[in-house]
Amino acid sequence: MITFTICLILLVAAYFTYGTYLERICSVSADNPVPSSTCFDGVDYVPMPRWRTFLIQLLNIAGLGPIFGAVMGAAYGPVAFLWITFGGIFFGAMHDFVSGVISVKNNGVSLPEIIGKYLGSGVKLFMRIFSVALMVLVGAVFMSQPAEIIAARIDCPVLDDNIVINGFSAMLLLVMAVILVYYIVATLLPVDKLIGKIYPVFGFALFFMAIGIFCVLVFSSEYAIPELTSLKNQIADADKFPIIPTLFTTIACGAISGFHATQSPLMARCIRNEKECKSVFFGAMISESIIALIWAAIAMAFWGGVDGLNQALAENGNKAGVLVDIIAQSTLGKWLAAMVIFGVVAAAITSGDTAFRSARLIVADFLGMEQRTLRKRIYISLPLFVGALVIILLMPFRTMWSYFAWMNQTLAVITLWAITAYFYRAGGLRYLLSLIPALVMTYVCSSYVFVSPLMCGMENRTLAYAAGAAVTLAISFYFLRQFRNQRSLNGQKSS
């Protein structure tokens, strides 16, 4: 309990200390104009109260990551607490806050356009393609998984036993169809008409879920949270899944997630003044890290330790959703467990619909197509939904999740380098705040390519890590050269 408590205190304290420091060095001021007033369109640029934008941002970024990812990551042992805490503060919260502030200061433009401004047109073109692909993959993940959870709780043998296509039952397809209809509506409607109204309800459900599990951990003597006594990898197959890089990709949303930076422009277009950035962007990420910390703790404690958790994962086909359901029903009872599952489903669905919405805005910014007209929103959205359905029907979930995890962290890498360029232009040593996380995550994503069995799967681990280091050096050299070139161009323009 000591390790857990210290980590929780550090996360809360970071909001008032590190968050305030970042606010100062980013020159955040309530007097600066914001996109919701300068670019108001009644569709995407709509001012909303701070509490509403905070809850929407939290639901946008939470998804299944801080729950399922934390449960899977807890299999590595209490070392997961360190990554959630320090990753959440110095990697994730910094990443979310600064990318959000940059978006606010650039009229709420989408992430690829921001990347292009600070890293050049070549990287911008890559990011346009990469980020849209990731958004479609996120939409597919967050359509299939909540559908499976809901379908599993509906007792209808006629539909459950009727396998229609590729292992999908009629019930599962029916639930996915309902979720898809919701996604279409949420993607096309103005942000304040559906998302702005129902997300707060879902947000409270998410908080209820976390508070319920937290109370079980604190007040029940039945569960003991393992303490951090070493950095040993305790996962069942440690050789196949080393802490570096797989822990850093398994727990993404609870520590750092590139997906978050794609969501920040959505709320950057809705905040009423820049001083709201700290609570909306930094605060939402800290909240997500706390949720991940709670789920990692209960996952270890519920099965009597890390070994029991690994055994439970093996017995349930490594399906984190099954373990979450078992934990909820056993600790909170049938009715409260239903609220927990509702929170899980809500988190997933609300991240899915904003993923599609973000993809629509990225494509619209790329094409220069206005989005006031419903017809034009439909033109962009339909191919995105078709792509997600193809992924769901053709790709196994574990493969889908693994590629999502890597692409997610790769996007974080590029965003961190853009933030570093932003700080570098501002002068001083503040760029070190993002340069160090950028280097770490570049190495994580590079080494993952060579270590992961879904990619190169090199058996010679020393050579795999060396290859990751070489790629990291090459990428670092490229971006640092871009920084110098951009600074030179800016100097010429000013002179």
Walk me through this protein's architecture.
With 495 residues, the chain is mostly helical. The chain has a single domain, classed as Up-down Bundle (Amino acid/polyamine transporter I). 75% of the residues lie in helices and 1% in strands. It has 20 helices and 2 strands. The chain has helices at 2-16, 18-25, 35-38, 50-62, 65-73, 79-105, 111-119, 121-152, 157-160, 170-188, 195-219, 243-250, 258-268, 277-302, 306-315, 320-367, 374-394, 397-426, 432-451, 461-494, and strands at 163-165, 168-169. The protein has a two-stranded antiparallel ribbon. Strand 1 (163-165) and strand 2 form a beta hairpin. Helix 10 (170-188) packs antiparallel against helix 17 (374-394). The radius of gyration is 22 Å and the shape is globular. It starts with a helix and ends with a helix. The mean pLDDT is 85.
Essential attributes:
single chain; 495 residues; mainly alpha; Amino acid/polyamine transporter I; two-stranded antiparallel sheet; 20 helices; 2 strands; 75% helix; 1% strand; globular
